[in-house]
């Protein structure tokens, strides 16, 4: 599970990060509103802890932008404001929860855990489909629905296909895939992704699927169904 903290009080952000890491979460920090928006729009996070008062762009603007982009990442608003209208503003824009400063760290962690459990319960689905292709996440198996041919795939191939199948109709950038699959701080070789795409294409061909990975030069990748 990946969590983004958008908080300009660096000491507080670090304390929250350390506590979340004890819970085995992967955590990134942004101290600036514009930087926070850029990271949030990547779509790689399961939850965002979002402060309201930020330099360059406030938390409400960030929340409005990510919801306008149909990103359904869980968001917990974090702010010194306690007035009812401020809470309602965040909730009306699509926040999932709201906690005011000062707060007990155990309460924040509990709220994070609750939101992520709800998200997992909502999204549990062992199978994804696109065109004639069915991906079984639990068994790491690709199946062509038309002929019932199946093949096992590796972990990275599974993660790449899962991300593409959850974002059908959208061009997914190379950076988004790197961040989602390998993490923001990874230093993998720039051609690693193409190697895995080669593996995936071979396996799609082996099961005679008509699904193809389309490359939009300079933009990214998306799934498409090949014409007869």
What does this structure look like?
The longest helix has 19 residues, at 105-123. With 228 residues, the protein is an alpha/beta fold. The mean pLDDT is 87. The N and C termini lie far apart (40 Å). Helices cover 41% and strands 23% of the residues. It is elongated and about 60 Å long. The protein has helices at residues 10-22, 33-40, 59-68, 84-93, 105-123, 155-165, 174-181, 192-206; strands at residues 2-6, 26-30, 47-51, 74-79, 97-100, 127-130, 133-136, 141-144, 149-152, 211-216, 220-225. Helix 1 links the parallel strand 1 and strand 2. It has 2 domains: 2-123, Response regulator (Rossmann fold, 3-Layer(aba) Sandwich), CATH 3.40.50; 127-225, Arc Repressor Mutant, subunit A.
* Unreliably modeled segments: none
For the termini, the CA-CA separation is 40 Å
CATH superfamily of the largest domain: Response regulator
Q: Note the beta-strand portion.
A: 15-25%
CATH class type of the largest domain = Alpha Beta
In DSSP terms (H or I, runs of 4 or more residues), the helix count works out at: 8
Largest sheet: 5 strands, parallel
Give the helix/strand class: alpha/beta
Rg over alpha carbons: 20 Å
The chain-level mean pLDDT equals 87
Helix content: 40-55%
Q: What would you say the CATH architecture of the largest domain is?
A: 3-Layer(aba) Sandwich
Instruction: Tell me the number of structural domains.
Output: 2
Name the overall outline. elongated
CATH topology of the largest domain: Rossmann fold
